[in-house]
Each structure stands twice: as C-alpha cells, then as structure tokens.
Amino acid sequence: MSTLPVPRNLERFPELHPPLDAASALAEANRCLFCFDAPCTAACPTHIDVPRFIKKIASANMRGSALTILDANILGLSCARVCPVDVLCEGACVMRRYNKKPIEIGRLQRHAMDWFYEAGSPLGQPVPLQSPITLRVACIGGGPASLSCAAELRRHGASVTIFDNRPLPGGLNTYGVAEYKLRPSDSLREVDLVRSLGVEFRQAEIGGAREIGGAVSLDHLENEFDFVFVGVGLGAMEKLGIPGEDSPGVIDALRFIQRYKTEHEFAVGRCVVVIGGGNTAIDAANAARRLGAEEVHLFYRRGEREMPAFSFEYEHSKVEGVHFHWLAQPLEIVQREGRAAAVKFALTELGPPDDSGRRRSQPIPGSSYEFACDMVIPALGQTRLTDLLHGTRGIDLNGGSIAVDRPTGRTSNPRYFAGGDCVNGGREVVDAVADGKRAARAMLNSDRPGGRPHPQEVSRG
Amino acid sequence: MADLTTNFAGIRCPNPFWLASGPPTNSGGQIMRAFDAGWGGAVWKTLGDPIVNTSSRYSSVDWNGQRMMGLNNIELITDRPLETNLREITEVKKRYPKHAVIASLMVDSKREVWHEFVKRTEDAGADGLELNFGCPHGMSERGMGAAVGQVPEYSCMITEWVKEVARTPVLVKLTPNITDIRAAARAAKLGGADALSAINTLSSITGIDLDTFTPRPNVGGLSSHGGYCGPAVKPIALHMVQQIASDPQVGIPISGIGGIGGWREAAEFMLLGCGTVQVCTAAMHYGYRIVEDMLDGLSNWMDEKGFRTIEDFRGISVPKVTEWKHLDLNYKIVARIDRDLCIGCDLCYVACWDGAHQCIHLEGNPKPAAVEAASRARITTTPIAKLDSQQVKSYATPPARIPRIDEEECVGCNLCWLVCPVERCITMEKVETGRPRESWEQRTAARGAV
Q1: Per-residue pLDDT reduced to its tens digit, B98-149
Q2: CATH for B324-373+398-449?
Q3: Labelling A67: which of A392, B87, B282, B345 has CA 20 to 30 A away?
Q4: B410 is catalytic
Q5: What is the ipTM of this complex?
Q6: Where are the domains of chain B?
C-alpha cells in the first residue's frame, strides 16, 4: 500500500467524517427503508444501487456490498469520502420527507469500502485480454474519468493504457482534494485496484518526459490505439489578471493544495487572503488554517447568497475559523520588500443576473481599500487544456469544454471520446467516474476505426 | 384511576402481572426484588427432583438490528435443593403476604411423588400450584413436561392426583407443541384444574453458526431442541388462548403467556379472556423494571377507555374471532394514499406488483423492471451553482413517485398499508358495495337450496 507523502498531515488534517464502527453501521443500515427504484440511486451520477449495498451491510455480506458499489463505481472509496452527498444521494433520501435524518449513505459506503480495502479482498480474477485483442484504448490523463473508463473497458477484456503527465496517477484525487476529505494514500489504493484489473499506467517522469503532445504524440496514440479517451481535466487556475499577481507569496489554490500534500517543508503564511467563492477556495482556506495560519480571510466579489460553494462547505469553513468578506473585487496585489504584502480591493454592488442566474458584480468607483497579508491564494477556477485537441484534431468545443454526446461521451472526432472536468467544466469526482464509464461502454459497442466491426457483431456473424 | 387488583381463580394479588416460571423466578431474593419493582405475582422456577444444567443454555433470533425477537432455552427445572426453595417460599410469603407466589411443579409421573410435592410446597406457603406439563426440552425425554401435556389422558390423570390433596388453586400449564390445544385444555379441566396457563415454549432450533455449522446454543459442539419464547411467539400464543377461551368445554380462568413485553400485549391477552398475564423473556432482556410501564400504560389505557377493572374488558374480543365461513363476503375496503404524506419510497408499489394483485401504479402504468431501467438510463450530474442555473431546492415528494391505487382492481388485502413506513399515509377505507351481508356459509346454503 502506498504511504502518505507528508505523514504529518495525518495529525494536521483529521478526517472530516470519521468512519462508522461496525455496530453503528449495522444500525444505520437497518434504518434504510429499501425504497423501490430508490431516489438515492437515481441521484447518484454512477447509479450505485444504494439500498442494495446497504442491505448487504445489514445481512453481513460485506464482500457483496463492496462489489455492488465497485461494480457501478470503481472509485467507490474516494467518492464515499468526497462526494457532496447532501446534494446527491442523501439529498434525495426519502427520510428527509419523513422528518427524519437521511440515511448516512456516504459513511455506509465508506464502511463497505474500508472493509474491502482492509480485507485485501480482490475484485475477482482479472478478466483475460481478448485473444486476439479487438479493442485498444489510450486514456489521456490519470484522474477519475480515465480510471473509471479504463476499469470499465478492462473488465470487458479490452486493452487499456493510461498516459498521465504527473509523477503519480490519480489526478486531482491524489493532488487536489483537501487532505481532511481524501488522503493521497487512499487515492493511490484505488489506482492500485484499477492496476490490478490489468490497466497499464504510463506516468511522466519528473520533468514531463512523456507529456502528451511532447514525447507521446497524438499521432502515436492514433497509430497504436483504436480510440483515445480524453480525461485531461482542467488546466492551471485562472489568473486574476491584476498587477502584482506574480509576486512571491502568491500561489494559486490548486498548487497550494498540491504542495502541502506533497512537500514536507511547505509553509503557510501568517495572515492569508483567499480570493474566490468556490469549493476549492474553501478547501484552500480551511487548509491554510490547519497548516497554522493565524488569520485566513476569504474574499468574494459577490454576496453570501451567490457564493458557488456548497452550503455545508461554507458552514464547515466558518467552524474552522475562516473570515468571510463579501462584495470585494481584487484590483492589485501590493508588494513590499519584494513580496506580496497586501491586496487592494474595490467594493462591489450587484447588478442583474448573468447566464448562471447569479447577480453580476460591479466595482463601486472610489471604494478601494487595502487588506494587509503575507500570502495570497487566488482560487478562480481552472483554465481549459483543450486547445491542442481543437486545433489539430478538429474536436468541437463548447465554451472551452470538449463538446460530447452526453450518453456516449463521443466527440466530433470519431476516434476520440472524452469525460470528466474537461467536458463538464469542473464538477465532482463522481461525475467524472460516470462520464468515463459511459464512454467505455460506448467504445465497447462502437465499430472499430478502419471499418473493423466490434466483436459482438463478429460473433453474431 | 383503574383498579388493577386481581382475584385469579381465588389467588389474590395487587395486579395481574406475574413473572412466569423461569430464570427470573429462580430464587427468593430475585422474587422479592421483583415484588419491590411492582410485579403482582411470581411463578417459582419449576420444582422437582434436582437436575444438572448445561453450560450454554440460551440462543436468540435477532431481527433487523433488534436483539432477541425470539429467545430459545435448553435450561431445565431448578437446580437448587428443594429444601432451599421451600424455605425461601416461606420467607417471601412472610415478607410479601399480599403478593401471589405460585409453585411450579414437575416430578416423576407417580401419584405418591406428586402428593408429596403438593403437600410440601403448600406447607411452605405457596398461594397456588402450576403443573408444568409444557416444557418441551430435556425433561420431556424423561417422561415429564411436554411428554405429559401432549397426551390428554396423562394430563387428566396427574391433575386428578394433584387435586386429591391440593388445598390451593391448581393451574395447568399447557404446551403449544400439540395439534389442537383445546384437547389438552379439556383434559386439564376434566382432571379438576382450577385454571390454565398458556402457552409454554415452542420446540425450536433458533439458528446455526455458519462458521462451525453447529446449531445454537452450542454445548461442546452439539445442540439440542429448545423452547422458543419472546415477542416472536405472541401471535401463536394469542391464537391458542383464543381457542381455549372460546371453547365451551373449558370455561376456567386463563393466565396468558407468550411474548408479553409491555402493557399493550397484556391488554391483548386480557381482551381474549386472560385474567392474569405472565412475563419471562422481557424481564430477562431488560430486568424487572419493565413492569412499571406495564402497570402505568395499562392503567392509562383503561382510564381512557372507561374500564374500571380488568373484568370490565376481559374477554370482550373473544367473540370477535370466528370461523372464516362466517365472514362477510360483501364487505369491501380499498387502499387510499394520502398524497401529502407520501414520501415516495414506492414500497407499496413493488409490494403490490410482486406480492399482491398489481393494482398500484406509477405514472404511465410501467412494470417494475421498466421503472428501474428508466432510472438507470437517466444521466444525472452533481448540481454546481457556478455551472447550473440556480434552482429552488425542494424536498417535496416528486409527483411521479406518488403511486396511484386502481380502486376497481384493489382487493383490500392490506399489504400496501402494512409495508408503508409512514403512519396514516395509506388507509384502508370502506367502500359501499350495495350488497347485503353474506357469508360463505350463507352463500353455499343458498346454492344448496336451489
């Protein structure tokens, strides 16, 4: 099993939702009504059969419970920890309408997954490769979408290779999820499970020797593989686009999270300003507190009601001691002695709603003020990585994301499928898993390039 | 305030709640603590020639996370010397003269042995005797307990022997491990019994350890048939009590036993004719303290219903049980769903489709497999405020998940109402058929007349 890159993080980031003990899990499992056509299952993007896995916990069939989860969602372990269950399965639980607490589906799933990984219980015999191999797929990106796509394909006998330009696989599950939700070691356990199915991983060495578009060209992938699945996620975080942004002491939220999770010597500032109102901004702000910042101030250009973060994340962050400042738009990062020393903000007012239905913010002239700090963490969302595919492979984009046929993940180029953040603009792990699984099934049912029919048709002939 | 004082076949006690013969009544010290907690009487752990018990004696059936839905035991009668038990009976009666102390007896089927035990226990001060003709394990292999109760002639004969010398009321405790309990009840009556206790435990094997393949309880790698009791056996006990209570050839008081754990069950047994009730498993599970709510709850219920004494309602449900052939075939009820209370679990829908008469429907009348397939095919994503237009979050039941009853097809079986987790969401409502009352007996008689 993989070890934690920064062991000290175990103490600094105790788990947000501690595991259920066996007796509590049994009591909770027995509380589940076993709804028919359960709303929780429908609400899960991967459609895990929730009542089925819960009743298997109740019947002491732990292996069956775990496999029920993994059959629908190979990343059942990380999803159990990071899913925003309040707006997914637990949000749909009928118990909410019964003046009762929803079933703790997330923690029950974790209970089954913890059992599975602790028991070292294998998924079963790996499915042998087809002979001869009739489907070869390259997955670009080592995150949840590719892992899910690869696992689904491999379980049906296809040959799959994942190409990833980071040293460790797992994508944001390894590098980008807050430590108190998911540890890199757990992400890597899931990667090992996918590997155990027979999926091949090609990681970049440090320095990016095998980076896609560099050492491994798309031409090469198209020659070697029938289909390419694009699960590259989003790119670096958006720039603020204001003076002083490149000062020492400024680090975007994703790099901040990646560094504290992987670097022993990484140190946080004493007074930290986080800019942005999304879940990543909240993760970074909470982490800054846990890493020892005396004060953490989160600034958002709109109001509390418009903040895109989930409300439970916001509530949790207040408990962590993060201070929230509304209606503040950054104008400049002020340097002193060669480092970020303050952020200059303008007050904003809210105008009419924009496309997302949230009210647009406009700075109020003459309202600027400075806020002193020694670290600035912009968290404005991620840029898109998709220009290369659009430019050289004619893959249609939609507002910067890859445009796909939703039920199949098929792009405008018949050799390419796509899923995860690069398609959906940045949702949850579970959405990426669902995208990858749908694309895999579509590839299994597609005619191979060059007019080769897919195997089911061969056997019928 | 209801009056719970009881006179059962001449045995007086402050209330009708007795501890049944068993581990909770093994010693005088225990029984005195039970009386302090509020119990009105106790049937002493069965006296007889001392035996040896095994180590590992009980096993249980748990259900849906609840412990001891049913309890099984292979414990035999008292393993303490007779003299000790008799001395303690005397002491208990001296200190608790108003409480009922009944001695349960089980000895070899010899007239003189029975005579001796009856005399000695009555001399010790017992208020009554309960003849244990019911224990289904161990002792029955030695020709006692259920081995007597299963043969009406033996029951009658031994009851006669006891009555030859007994000065106190004699109760006969009946075994349920018999085809028709009325035969055993009539035999006891014929032998002169003053009252009956029903039921004793049911022969059982509670379960098997799936790792060792040995049934429970495990005694050194082997198990044995035991006696089953606890909440699981209540319906069986109620049935048997009703059978006895409605039999004109019996007509003696009944002390009800079997799955009584609270005042509600006690009231049920009394409504079917019992003058006292006996409790064992619930006291083994939670201790003597449970009697407080039994007294309080029964008393409150009686006040609410306007019953001053137990005699005011005892037995009033007996005539409400009849033979099937007398039921009204023209009585019709149908299920109704309260759309405001429905939480959309759709358990009624699948229960009706798979377990009943396919008359509960979802929008468009799909079959269950089609409903599930449609849900699996739906593409669902996590709502993200930044990416999605903001929607008002509602926890109201989606109308598509509220099932509809086809009242024409509904046979009024009750299944949907039974599975519905929400109180008062599904109700069974009477529908006027316009046809007069007609039973199967009347219908077939009318046919015969034609």
Answers
A1: 999 999 999 999 999 999 999 999 999 999 999 999 888 888 888 888 889 9
A2: 3.30.70.20
A3: B345
A4: no
A5: 0.87
A6: 6-320, 324-373+398-449
